[in-house]
Automatic annotation (TrEMBL):
GO biological process annotation, one example: response to stress
Record-annotated SprT-like domain positions: 1-142
One Pfam family in the UniProt entry: SprT-like
Protein name, UniProt field: SprT family metallopeptidase
Native source organism of the sequence: Streptococcus ferus
Protein's gene: sprL
Length: 145
């Protein structure tokens, strides 16, 4: 999907206004569906939400960001707490909040050789450098099966 062309189409169909900037995917977004940048007018979107929830929910996220975009360039209240934003968002049927993404599970499990306390981490721990926080014992990586 050409994201900029899709956003232009949604802007014209749902707002009756043209979108004149770029829309890009941003894989680093974790909790938000998208972002509007007033400085240069471009929009960022979370590709993970598109993959998880499909085009119907993603279109509502695009509407939300386009509310920020069009209100900013119309010199009206474009922030979440502004009345103009809330009214336009309700009128076009955009999402107020992005849907929740599934939490990532810890990938690495470590066990203290002394007190047998278990640690779960998403990133690898340098076993030469770090020790148990409770008893200062040596950590051992548990086999992932």
């Amino acid at each position: 999907m050409n994201l900029t062309e899709y956003v232009k189409r949604v802007s014209w169909e749902d707002f009756g206004l043209s979108f004149k900037h770029k829309a890009v995917w941003n894989k680093r977004l974790k909790s938000s569906g998208g972002r509007f940048f007033p400085k240069d007018g471009h929009l960022d979107f979370n590709p993970h939400l598109y993959e998880a929830y499909g085009l119907d929910v993603f279109r509502k996220i695009v509407r939300h960001e386009l509310c920020h975009y069009h209100l900013y360039f119309a010199q009206k209240g474009y922030r979440h707490q502004d009345r103009d934003f809330k009214e336009l968002l309700a009128a076009v049927g955009g999402l107020r909040y992005a849907p929740k993404m599934a939490k990532t599970q810890a990938c690495y499990t470590y066990i203290c050789s002394s007190c047998h306390l278990e640690f779960q981490r998403q990133r690898r721990v340098n076993l030469q450098k770090f020790v148990c926080g409770s008893c200062y014992g040596k950590l051992i990586e548990k086999n992932q099966s």
